[in-house]
Amino acid sequence: MAVGALGGLLGGLIGQALYGWKEYDVFLVLGWTITGFLIGVSLGLFDLLSSLIRHQDLGAARRKMFKGVLGGTLGGLIGGTLSLLLLSGWTQLLRLLGGNLEVEKHLWSPSAWGFVTLGACIGLLIGLAQVILKEAWLKVEAGFRKGREILLSKPEVTIGRAESCDVGLFGDPQIARLHARICQEDNRYVLIDEGPGTYVNGVLIHGSHLLRSGDVIRMGQSVLRFRERPRRAE
């Protein structure tokens, strides 16, 4: 709430300052680009502040903020441009129909559709940035929701049957509420067993285990495959 309120305040102040230049379309697109940038910042800022307070490694939070900023800024730029094109197209349509342009523009205009387009573009580009620039992830090969992939974008990812776990493996009584954790340590991923038994490549682990790309993790009836980008693996 605090980060969102601050972003809204800054965005509003900048928008009000640019409002007097609204006859220049470039400032409208610039305003939406700034909005997308602030939304992108907000996604990673909380994790960054949390890591600072807890004295944790800031690498993951910085990478998440970078991806959010990149996706949000591009989404705002594209969404603002599409919003402008919608408004221009509606204006041209009214002129072709020979209606009262000033009156009919206020009866209906694509402003709402512009906001929908903007939000969709920002959300889409932030999601694409997270996926394209992903560094490590898990793929469920057997068990709850087989085939899904979970990005490891947090310093610590919890796995288990509890609703609060980042990777929920429901419906399997052999899995504990908190069965395992995956932690980032010096740019490496370490699996820590917390449950009644966790296997990596068919071998029961005790305590912690350094993960490598391609490792198969089994707990209960669920099978997860760990992957990371070749650059990080090297």
Describe the structure.
There is one protein chain. Strand 1 and strand 2 (149-151) form a beta hairpin. The strands form two sheets. The chain has a six-stranded antiparallel β-sheet with strand order 2-1-11-10-7-8. The two termini are 40 Å apart. It is built from six helices and eleven strands. Helix 2 packs antiparallel against helix 3 (59-97) and helix 3 (59-97) packs antiparallel against helix 5. Helix content is 51%, strand content 20%. The model has no long low-confidence stretch (mean pLDDT 77). It is elongated and about 75 Å long. It is of the alpha+beta class and 234 residues long.
Count of discrete alpha- or pi-helical segments spanning 4 or more residues: 6
The residue-averaged pLDDT reads 77
The counted number of beta strands is 11
Gross morphology: elongated
Distance between the termini: 40 Å
Question: Strands of the biggest beta sheet: in what spatial order?
Answer: 2-1-11-10-7-8
Query: Which consecutive residue ranges, at least 5 long each, have pLDDT under 50?
Result: none
Strand percentage, roughly? 15-25%
- Sheet with most strands: 6 strands, antiparallel
- What Rg do the Cα atoms give? 23 Å
List the helices and strands in order: HHHHHEEEEEEEEEEEH
Helix content: 40-55%
* Overall SS class: alpha+beta
Primary descriptors:
single chain, 234 residues, alpha+beta, 6-stranded antiparallel sheet, 5-stranded mixed sheet, 6 helices, 51% helix, 20% strand
Concise structural overview:
By secondary structure, the chain is α+β, with helices and mostly antiparallel strands. It is built from six helices and eleven strands.
